[in-house]
Batch of 3 targets.
Target 1
Amino acid sequence: MIRRLKPEVVRQVCTPRTAEQMRQAMIEVVQGQKGTGKQAGIEDIIVAGKTGTSQRRREDGRGYEDGHYCVSFAGFAPADKPELCAIIVVDDPHGAPEELYGGKLAAPIFSQLMKQSLHTMAVAHAVQRELSPLSNGGAQ
């Protein structure tokens, strides 16, 4: 079941200009030539997001564990008129050190999740449009 929530304005945390600059920067992460989140891209959809890679802290709280990371990708789509947002976090992944980055591990998962979710939403909206005449007393 898909439920659409209405936005509730609580406060303005930044100016519209700053929000637009952030959106553009996040689009560049995925769409830009030097973007670290290219693998979050979806064909024919503008995706915006941010990659993340951090070392895990040691259990005793003194420094970080060598070779242990937490990687992530947070984003939204379509970036020009957002419908969905998601964050993917992979805690302590295993693999070659050059692969342990948010853009390499979490971004492709985000892409697949978002692609499937947007498809599911489109199907649900299409079914809802088809059923609307029926719920209003039948076809006219």
Target 2
Amino acid sequence: MNDEEWLLGGGLHGGKHGMIKMAPLELRLDNDDMGGLSALNHGEIGGPVWFIHDAVEGGVGFSHSIYDHFEAVARRTLERVDYCDCGNTTGCPACLMSSQCGNDNAPLHRYSTVSVLTGALDQLGYSHEGGGITDELRL
């Protein structure tokens, strides 16, 4: 994986982790009931993507709740990642890392995660006020 792929992969992976971590705070559900997948080039999508899915066999609608409340969950995730005081490019257990990650929390990249989440919100017509590391990205 080259540097550019690692950055994008870290942003996608971080976005997925962050949304799974923050969804319980917004939607009153347990993040153990969700899983996810991120890929730089998914065969069916033809590009970069992350998925969040129910971890319960057959599903019970948790991931659908995240879809229905994407803006709220994405904003909460963006705020947590953007303003985390860990100072680590790869994040920390409070903002990006997950003990359930099957990829040993790699790649993860806070700056790229902020960029990916901001881009997703912008593309859907939602704005982001900036602050935190977002301001550093503009320098």
Target 3
Amino acid sequence: MSGSVTAPLVGLSGGENFAVVAVQPADAGCHMVLPCGPEAAAPARKLVESAFEAWSGGRLVDAGKLLVTELVANAAKHTGCRRIGVAVRRQPAAFWVGVRDSSGELPALMAPAHEAESGYGLGLVAALSQRWGVTCESRGKWVWFELRLEAS
């Protein structure tokens, strides 16, 4: 995957700076490694936005940003990991977005109690994406979703 660095994002935990990746139309994908915390949601959203706009998926930007925020929040809240990976790939008929963490624990799609303040994340992912899932690796997993492109 490729992508060039443009502007720094400041103010993340530990004084770390992260760059927004400027995705080019010819790129097949892009990837970032971020601290595993709620502050990682902002650069993850920027990555999704940059990729989707470069690949003419502008109408999917809002859904992509919402769903990657949910996956980052789940990783931050439930895994205890120190870093996460965020990847975006262009496929022939869809955009694939994944968040990788080092935990082997699988996420659970919940039915939150009435008026609960949390527990809705994966339900949103399931409702707004065409597909979502978990891909286990030797050290961790990818939780991912796909947003389908309209036929031209």
